[in-house]
Amino acid sequence: MTGKLPDSEAARIVTRAMPTADRRAVGLADIMALGVLLAGTPVASVSSSSQLRAMAARAARLLPAGFRQEARLETFVALGGFSPGEAVALRRRQLEHRLTSLAFFIKQLVAKSPYEIIVEGREHVDEALAGGRGAVIWIADFVFASEVVRQAFHVLGHPLTHMIRPEHGFSSTQVGLKYLNPVHRKAGDRYVREYAWPSPAAPSFTVSIGRPLTMKSADRHSAILEATKDFVSQLAPRVEANPELWRGWPSLT
Fold first, then answer.
1. Does some domain include residue 131?
2. Which terminus of the chain, N or C, has fewer Cβ atoms within 10 Å?
3. How many domains are there within the chain?
4. Has residue 23 been placed in a domain?
5. Single pTM value for the model
């Protein structure tokens, strides 16, 4: 990753204030998240990117294929066109990528970025901003996408305002909101205030910024439908190429 990252005051994280009195004090997920952080942080801090990916692959083979999967197996068979055997293999690859994403996230809490980011299509952003009206960025729901895209836009010099819920992160309990979720946001805060230099062996992500979506209709409702269809037409080939990375399967259930 190259380029100077914006000053910490340039980018903002906005949260909505919500009462916590009616929330549970603590939950099992809090204990699990704390255990993962305590056990995973020392390991991730001294492990290379390739070692983290290898550990995630081994863990994915040992865990059940349906571990913490939101989409049912039938969804992949009925809507994805996979055989039952292919669907099981796909879910296991999904689990591997999600565990890799978690490992990379934990590493960023205590060390430099474990990957490099390459940006394609930045001319589309420059063109939109030159028009004086800004740009609406639609981020496809793939594993790694949300974190990597935000980091990429910081590198481009366009700080983002990130709208989040208090529940953003590990937990929605009182303990989670107060202690665990700020830890989750810490990884993102790194890219607001400092450089990040990956090692030569680090994996790379390409952030591809596509052409502006088509919205020719003067009617707002029709324009939104038109833009949605255009977005889906650009998204579909990428889902076909990397079905295990797409996180939208549960929405089709």
1. yes
2. C
3. 1
4. no
5. 0.63
